[in-house]
Amino acid sequence: MRRFALATLSAALLPFALSLAGCASSEPPPPCPPAGTPTPLDNITLFAPGGGRDLTEVRFSGRISSVQAACDYDDEGVDVDLAVDIRVERGPADKSRQADLQYFVAIEDGPGNITAKQVFDVAVPFEGNSRRLARREELSLRIPTPADGFKQTRVLVGFQLTPEQLEFNRRQRP
To answer: Could you please report the per-residue DSSP string of 13-50?
Structure first.
């Protein structure tokens, strides 16, 4: 009797067990494409109009402090959920109490081969006596499977800088 009950139960659960077998693969899922910020694009400094570039002329400075990614692959590509942590500090020349910044997310498929890029606006209001704020931007993107797979795919996140801001960042690095 017990044997029959287990056989009946096994037959009833066989389709369910087979569907789970696809979920419990012996191979781990592939890792997420690496996500990060290129060094000269991880900081931004906004100065007051007029050309001064000393500390008293700083309106805001910002830094991308971390980029985290979670992925879900399927047969046609990967869905990537990104969390971008941005830290912003008011400078002595700030009058507006709001930092308006832009950052980008780009897909690189091999060194220097940008296949997609999107720029995002961020407004960071400073309330009360706040001088420093942290903000998390969350977004999702879809990356179709490249012809040669995801071996060289990277997700790049950085501030959208003017040529002057980029040069300023390069001069600040040793």
So the answer is: HHHHHHHHHHHS-SSPPPPPPPEE--GGGSEEEEEPTT
Considering the entire predicted model, what is its pTM?
0.80
Residue 49 in tokens = 């109009």
The two three-digit tokens of residue 126, written as one number: 């400073």
pLDDT confidence bin for 51, thresholds 50/70/90:
confident
- Contact between residue 88 and residue 133 where contact means Cβ atoms under 8 Å apart: yes
Distance CA 45, CA 61 (A): 4
- CA 152 – CA 161 distance, rounded (Å): 25
Neighbours of 166 (CB within 10 A): 15
Q: What does the pLDDT look like over 104-147, one tens digit per residue?
A: 999 999 888 999 999 999 999 999 889 999 999 999 999 998 88
The CA distances from residue 26 to 31, 99, 102, in Å, are 15, 49, 43
Query: For residue 6, what is the enclosing H or E element?
Result: helix 2-23
8 A C-beta contact, residue 119 and residue 125: no
Instruction: Give the HSE-up count for residue 160: Cα atoms under 13 Å, Cβ half-sphere.
Output: 13
C-beta of residue 166 within 8 angstroms of C-beta of residue 37: no
Strands 35-36 and 153-159: parallel
